[in-house]
Predict the structure.
Amino acid sequence: MTSVAERQRTLLLSAASTAELLEALENPGTQGNSAHPSGPRLGLPDPTPDRIALARKVVAKGRPWRGRKDVWFTPSPLRHSGGKVAFLFPGLEGEFAPRIDDVAALLDVPVPDLSTRTIGRFGGAVMAVGRLLDTALRRMAITPDAVAGHSIGEWTAMIAGGIVAAEDFDQMLEHTDLDALRAPGVEFAVLGCGLDRVTAELETRPTVAVSHENSTNQTVVCGPSEDVAELVEHLRGRAVICQTLPFRSGFHTQMLRPYLASWANGLPSLPMRRAAVPVWSATTATPFPGDEEAARELCLRHLLEPVRFRTLVQSLYDDDVRLFVQAGPGQLGSLIDDTLGRAEHLTVAANSVHRSGIDALRYAATALWVEGCAPDLSALEFASAPVRNDPALSTLDALAGEFPAAAELSALMTETADAFAAVVAAARGVSTVERLTVSTTAMPYLLDHCLAAQRHGWPDETDLRPVVPATTMVEHLADAVERASAGSTVTEMRDVRFHRWLVAAPATDVDVEVRWQGTVAQARLGDHAEAEVVTAPAHPPAPEAWPVPDDERVPEITPERLYGERWMFHGPTFRGVTAALGISSRTIRGRITVPPAPGALLDNVGHLIGQWLVEMQPDRWIAFPVRMGSIRWYASEPKHGSTVDCTIRVTSIDKDSILVDAQVIDRGRVLVEIEGWEDRRFDGDAHVGAAHRFPGAHALSRPRPGGWWLVEDRWPSLAARELFMNHYLGAAERAEYEECPATRRRGWLLERIAAKDAVRGWLWERDPESVFPAELRVTQDGTRYRVTGMYGRDVPNLHVAVSGDGNVRAAIARAETVVGQGNQEER
């Protein structure tokens, strides 16, 4: 009779018989510390008196009890009879509320982006959570014998099983717009009946198709909205529970086929390897083929054929899988239980909305231990950081007031100890963490780097969207590394990545982490930016400066126009381009007077890239940095007010991105050289560009006959939508947007854009004064829209109507009229 206890938070008992197990329950603290090789097992997370009392009753009955009221018991562990473990990764569900902050902290990684603003971003969040939990489970010595997924969870399974490298997948995702991967005008509905009945109903409804065979008693269909609505109404009349889903993609049906052209460059284009762990496909309900081309073909079939999840679960069971671990939040486990019914199996979720992330893993580990696995619960404990408490230094500090020499000696010893600690940290791969406060108070120069122009004197800083420039994030990373490197100099950054905006209003605190491996550090600024940083005692010799191109001409845009016409949105502390020297089909040269803001020198390299795009690519000139292959410093950066030259070479350009190399030169000597600077490009023709540069005087919507204003969604990617959303929504509306279901947000935003532009158009007809979109607030009561002014903007009581569907919305604003005694007057 033995027991295992983990810091008195989890009680794990095993014995040769249920009688011995009951005896152990009476005094669990006196037992041993290793699991019994066979016989019944009991697991109790947080063993309260009530839970122990219930456990006694459960064990006395001698029948399996799997998780109800947080008690796990089995007389015969499934693992001991050959039962396999499978990780199953969820797809998109109506509710998505993972609790993973503590898990990310435990694994020492950033919390992934959990936004559900769009289908694409929602899918990325679901996959990121699955991958995080896969890492956590394996760290606990819980390893799968097979992996599979539901819908896009299959992509997570391909990474977890080793078919696709995580790095390749992440890079693909950065350049793929999942939101564009959808069939317009179709809708999903979940039906509370089995496949056979649904198939019979669809015989007379050829436009509707089965998209998901979820379980014995649940099927999902997809088709045109009206046809799906008719089927739902028909089945509800026959006592079938039905629900329309908020997702509109057409995934897993032939309706998606006409929109798959771009996906050929997505997942199917990646290098594929033979799986390290069997990866089962929900398309075929069999393991992925080992042949690379066959695996690519299956990736395409996955989006065009139904998800056969019920068949997949049954096939896994037939292959001796008995322990199903749901690697994510949601209801996937209920589909497994519905399919397998009374067949002996365990379903357990590794994440739950009802408890913290670590506690959910602890509960899952408890359940798996009871069924014969050997999880390492100690892996869920945080390592404590060492604290230096040197009595010698304390004594010197105490004497410092009386003897100044003691203070100097104390400071010298502290500095020596810090230097030694940094050296040891570098040798051992130890990390250092600093806290950076990001706000317009701590960083007032960010008021000159705001994404959204507003009326002068606008009182709400959050509507200005002040953000930390990418190059300022680079400077913060370099400074943190130099502070942690005991006097070394940063000479190079590699693979610099910018993941998301670092917004300064409202104020926020961000961790700057430096993890050492020798003289190279992995530096991370929260979940916003990261880079590999190289240090050395001194800067290396500089390369030769590039020659002046033979084919360049004088640029059309002067620095005065570049900033005055808001081609670059930056304020005075970031404006540094003081001369445009030359431009050609693949190059631009300019002169930069170093501005005072941190990181502004390299930010002005970006200004010159922007000028090249304005002159050479006027339909898609709006761009922001996402990555730099390398930055090499050959000298300290020049001080504020110094003048340097910059040469930029465009190495690659397509619709979505531009890739350049650059040199910053001082009197013929290269100071900084950048390779692989990549900017993400956005739609920016004359109409859109005007609304971006001068949002108070120009609209994204276009006027149409009869007073209508029409807007089309030309910004399918999340980043593009966020960019223009910043111009149009105030703080209260952004909060509303966040509360919208993921699939409703696109239409919700288009409605606000159209309504605001219709009202602005009405106002402009009467007074050409600038009206910024954030000066208007749109509220909605059913189908009625009301537009009011914010912060002193006077808006009359207008009747506003909005119409449209899909990617198009139109709105009209008219003055309400008062009718009486034979006349009408505007009100």
User: Anything to note?
Assistant: The two ends are 86 Å apart (CA to CA). The chain has a mean pLDDT of 88. Residues 371 and 487 are 54 Å apart (CA to CA).
